[in-house]
């Protein structure tokens, strides 16, 4: 078997936490993924994984081997990317972690446009609302939507996102339209479960007002949040670009239109400048320009 391919499969099994998830991500069968790991164990003469019916974990030898393999694969990726840079075209695998709620239809369209412009870059996207350690997870880049970027990472602001308070016409016909921020306490809300608090800010004629929403349901995906609000579940603070058509066509109503939420910054974050290869620069530059348009 191809040892380099086996190493890549082994690393993906560790990242994914199971043979099934790794095989699905790599587009191979579960037995084939297992064969690759067995091949490596025979090559190195040591057991790399503890296998039980419920979970996988690295052995002591497996942890040492995994750390070295991740470093080696990073070097190979950087070498491939550097060669692509010399030829004037970014290339190689670009591993990016993106918040689940941020990966909307608009982002999907931008990814397609990026891939057309840079066909030699293979995007490996990991969707999670948790802040993962980039080096430990083998990520090149993270997209964060926050007021407080992580100080130990190099960050570049690539855009902003504004939240809009909305509801369906049906829900408002049942509950009545709020006349003030204080009225919002009597409405049920669809909330993101990745937020630690239910507090929000709105800037109105009287200044900045902090308020709390009463959550009826919590989800980690804004697309589902939108569908629930459209179905009359309650009110929600949703990204403006996700609901532009709904507002234009009257499927959703903007509540308290004389109040705006402070924009959230969108950052591209990476570990250090030595990791800013052509593929990383191309991704950041492309999305920065796209978000500004």
Automatic annotation (TrEMBL):
Segments forming domain HTH lysR-type: 1-59
PROSITE patterns to which the protein is assigned, alphabetical: HTH_LYSR
CDD domains linked to this entry: PBP2_CrgA_like
MF annotations from Gene Ontology: DNA-binding transcription factor activity; sequence-specific DNA binding
Alphabetical list of Pfam families matching this protein: HTH_1, LysR_substrate
SUPFAM superfamilies referenced in this protein's UniProt entry, alphabetically: Periplasmic binding protein-like II, Winged helix' DNA-binding domain
InterPro entries: LysR-type_TF_proteobact-type, LysR_HTH_N, LysR_subst-bd, WH-like_DNA-bd_sf, WH_DNA-bd_sf
Keyword set, alphabetical order: DNA-binding, Transcription, Transcription regulation
BP terms from Gene Ontology: DNA-templated transcription
Highest taxon, organism lineage: Bacteria
Family statement: Belongs to the LysR transcriptional regulatory family.
Name under which the protein is recorded: LysR family transcriptional regulator
Organism lineage string: Bacteria, Pseudomonadati, Pseudomonadota, Betaproteobacteria, Burkholderiales
């Amino acid at each position: 078997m191809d040892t380099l391919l086996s190493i890549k499969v082994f690393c993906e099994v560790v990242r994914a936490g199971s043979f099934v998830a790794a095989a699905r991500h790599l587009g191979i069968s579960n037995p084939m993924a297992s064969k690759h790991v067995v091949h490596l164990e025979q090559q190195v003469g040591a057991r790399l994984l503890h296998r039980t019916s419920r979970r996988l974990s690295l052995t002591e030898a497996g942890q040492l081997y995994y750390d070295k393999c991740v470093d080696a694969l990073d070097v190979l990726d950087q070498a491939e990317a550097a060669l692509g840079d010399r030829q004037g075209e970014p290339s190689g695998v670009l591993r990016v972690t993106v918040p689940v709620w941020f990966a909307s239809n608009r982002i999907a369209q931008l990814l397609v446009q990026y891939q057309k412009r840079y066909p030699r870059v293979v995007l490996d996207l990991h969707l999670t609302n948790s802040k993962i350690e980039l080096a430990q997870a083998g990520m090149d880049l993270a997209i964060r939507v926050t007021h407080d970027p992580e100080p130990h990472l190099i960050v570049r602001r690539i855009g902003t996102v504004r939240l809009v308070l909305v509801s369906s016409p049906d829900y408002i016909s049942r509950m009545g339209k709020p006349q003030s921020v204080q009225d919002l306490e009597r409405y049920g809300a669809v909330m993101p479960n990745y937020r630690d608090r239910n507090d929000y800010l709105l800037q109105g004629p009287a200044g900045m007002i902090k308020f709390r929403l009463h959550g009826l349901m919590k989800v980690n995906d804004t697309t589902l949040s939108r569908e629930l609000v459209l179905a009359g579940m309650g009110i929600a603070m949703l990204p403006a670009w996700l609901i532009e058509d709904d507002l234009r066509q009257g499927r959703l109503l903007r509540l308290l239109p004389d109040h705006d939420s402070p924009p959230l910054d969108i950052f591209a974050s990476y570990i250090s400048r030595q990791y800013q290869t052509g593929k990383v620069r191309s991704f950041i530059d492309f999305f920065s320009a796209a978000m500004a348009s």
